Amino acid sequence: MADTVKRKIYDTTSRAGSSRARRHRILQAAGTEFVERGYLGTTMAGIAERAEVSLDTVYTLVGRKPGLFRLLVETAISGEDEAVVADQRAYVRALREEATAEGKLAIYAKAIRRIQPRLAPLLAVLQQAAGADEELARLWCEIGERRAANMRRLAEDLVAVHPLRMPLEQAADIIWATASTELYLLLVHQRGWSPSAYEQWLADTWRHTLLA
Q1: pLDDT digit string (tens) for 113-133?
Q2: 30 in Cβ contact with 72 (< 8 Å)
Q3: How far apart are the C-alpha atoms of 76 and 158, rounded to whole Å?
Q4: Which of 157, 212, 197, 205 has its CA nearest to residue 177?
Q5: CA distances from residue 120 to 92, 95, 180, 181, 201 in whole angstroms, order as listed
Q6: Nearest to 45 by CA among 55, 53, 31, 35
Q7: What pLDDT score was predicted for residue 10?
Q8: DSSP string covering the chain, please?
Q9: pLDDT above 50 (res 79)
Q10: What's this model's pTM, rounded to 2 decimal places?
Q11: Is the dihedral of CA 129, 194, 186, 199 positive or negative?
Q12: Are 107 and 114 a contacting pair, CB within 8 Å?
């Protein structure tokens, strides 16, 4: 009896691990397909073929195409195979615990440097496709508004430990604009900045521009 229970537990764990592995492959394949072919040019069948799974498996594990793209954006932000809410991300916790404004800005600059290589190619695809798909247009607007809300919280964290040179809302908008995917792509992809130079520029610019 005990051996039977152990075998069932093992089988269940094995199947769960297999599903996670296939889901990871699907996410990796989908990200590559969307970046290479664009949103409209990407098909779920193409994702299934690249991931070496059946089309039914794709739908079962990640859902339809719009939901899959949203999941890719969320996982690019979190760095995990699942979406992670902002307050549960390691860098957000570190930022909240940091005692100085300069330290908070340095932590966030490093986080943005790590996030953008995963996120920027997807948001470039999203921006191009938003005009042709209502659901993607909502996602584009939602991401912008969510970022703006998060930047306001960061500005509130800053002003709690150090006076700002400007009103809080203006400081939040400056962080929102300078941490954008568009600026990252301009500096790193088009102008050839190194990721470390980009991170240092963000931290220095925020420190000199925002802090009194």
Answers
A1: 999 999 999 999 998 888 888
A2: yes
A3: 26
A4: 205
A5: 20, 22, 9, 5, 18
A6: 55
A7: 45
A8: -HHHHHHHHHHHHHHHHHHHHHHHHHHHHHHHHHHHHHHHH--HHHHHHHHTS-HHHHHHHH-SHHHHHHHHHHHHHHTSSS---GGGSHHHHHHHH--SHHHHHHHHHHHHHHHHHHHHHHHHHHHHHGGG-HHHHHHHHHHHHHHHHHHHHHHHHHHTTS-BSS-HHHHHHHHHHHTSHHHHIIIIIIS---HHHHHHHHHHHHHHHHB-
A9: yes
A10: 0.82
A11: positive
A12: no
Residue 121: φ, ψ to 5°: -60, -35
For the chain, state the CA radius of gyration.
Answer: 20
211 bridge partner residues: 164
| Short-list 20, 28, 71, CA closest to 51 | 28
> Over the chain, what is the mean pLDDT?
89
**36-68: pLDDT as tens digits:** 999 999 999 999 999 999 999 999 999 999 889
pLDDT > 60? residue 12: no
| pLDDT average, residue stretch 11-17 | 52
User: What single-letter amino acid sits at 96?
Assistant: R
Establish how many alpha carbons lie within 13 A of residue 178's alpha carbon, considering only the half-sphere containing its beta carbon: 22
Task: Find, among 112, 68, 127, 132, the residue nearest to 203 by Cα.
Answer: 112
